[in-house]
């Protein structure tokens, strides 16, 4: 018999750590995809997209470090970036965009997905009455700040797409 | 995955298991909720044209409900496979159940870009083990024949 929980709350440090790890992987996926896109643009460089992707990769790396520091506070190991980059590389061809519009659309999906993830995570933490080993206010401040970056990222990509 | 999707997924699986309409009792058992809660949500699914409830028989998903349920099941398979193969989580089934409510379909789709999901998904889902039947877990080393 299947047993599916309908609980929407985060009940423990372990669950929180796992979700932060998933956040790190998402950031790694964004970073690695941006890197692959960046490389695939070498034939016909477009400065605006190049800058956008470079900034996105830098921002993802920064978010990753901030998430790593949070899960360090929970006493859990991070996720190895090299392995994730390898996985992205191995499967990249299957989902590679064909042109600049495709690259921008993929980047928009990256930013929107990350925003949705942090938004759901913040809501789940706010609805939970569990005591975490990290300071709840600091945790939420950090996640709100990261979510805000993702919202700005969505606006930036949308602006570039509308101009083109 | 929202609560409605969790119900749709469960009804779909119970319907397959029972080879007919899913009884409210089985749905409630599977979700670990009271029959009253299950009835309330089934009513909402009916209002949205996703399920039909026949008195004394049980619940049957509509075509739209089946599409949504299969999407939800696929999202669940992605979460299980991601936990097992990327994060090497041993208790991936338990954790998938704990985390599915917080992982949205769009997030699962992005995670799907780095996992090796089988084309038959979500038909690969096995209700008995509550997992993707073709999910490869690093097995314990096999003892060589003596």
TrEMBL record, chain B:
Pfam family, one: Fe_dep_repress
The protein's name: Transcriptional regulator
KW DNA-binding (keyword) present: yes
GO molecular-function term, one example from the UniProt record: protein dimerization activity
Similarity remark: Belongs to the DtxR/MntR family.
Xref: PROSITE patterns: HTH_DTXR (PS50944)
Residue stretches making up the HTH dtxR-type domain: 1-62
Gene3D superfamilies xrefs: Winged helix-like DNA-binding domain superfamily/Winged helix DNA-binding domain
Domain of life according to the entry: Archaea
């Amino acid at each position: 018999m299947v047993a599916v929980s309908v609980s929407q709350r985060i009940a423990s440090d372990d669950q929180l750590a796992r979700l932060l790890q998933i956040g790190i992987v998402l950031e790694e996926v964004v970073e690695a995809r941006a890197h692959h896109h960046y490389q695939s643009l070498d034939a016909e460089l477009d400065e605006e997209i190049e800058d956008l992707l470079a900034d996105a990769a830098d921002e993802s790396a920064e978010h990753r470090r901030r998430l790593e520091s949070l899960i360090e506070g929970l006493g859990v190991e991070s996720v190895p970036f090299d392995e994730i980059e390898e996985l992205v590389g191995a499967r990249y061809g299957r989902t590679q965009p064909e042109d600049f519009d495709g690259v921008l659309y993929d980047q928009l999906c990256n930013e929107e997905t990350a925003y949705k993830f942090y938004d759901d995570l913040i809501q789940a933490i706010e609805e939970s009455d569990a005591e975490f080993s990290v300071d709840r206010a600091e945790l939420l401040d950090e996640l709100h700040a990261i979510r805000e970056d993702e919202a700005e990222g969505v606006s930036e990509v949308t602006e570039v797409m509308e101009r083109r | 995955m929202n609560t409605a999707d969790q119900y749709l997924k469960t009804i779909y699986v119970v319907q397959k298991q029972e080879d007919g309409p899913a009884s409210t009792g089985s749905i409630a058992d599977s979700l670990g909720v009271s029959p009253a809660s299950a009835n309330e949500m089934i009513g909402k699914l009916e209002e949205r044209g996703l399920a039909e409830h026949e008195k004394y028989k049980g619940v049957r998903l509509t075509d739209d409900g089946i599409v949504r349920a299969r999407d939800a099941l696929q999202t669940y398979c992605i979460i299980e496979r991601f936990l097992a193969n990327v994060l090497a989580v041993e208790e991936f089934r338990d954790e998938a159940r704990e985390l599915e409510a917080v992982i949205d379909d769009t997030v699962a789709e992005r995670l799907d870009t780095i996992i090796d999901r089988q084309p038959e998904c979500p038909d690969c889902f096995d209700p008995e083990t509550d997992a993707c039947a073709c999910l490869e877990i690093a097995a314990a080393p096999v003892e060589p024949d003596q």
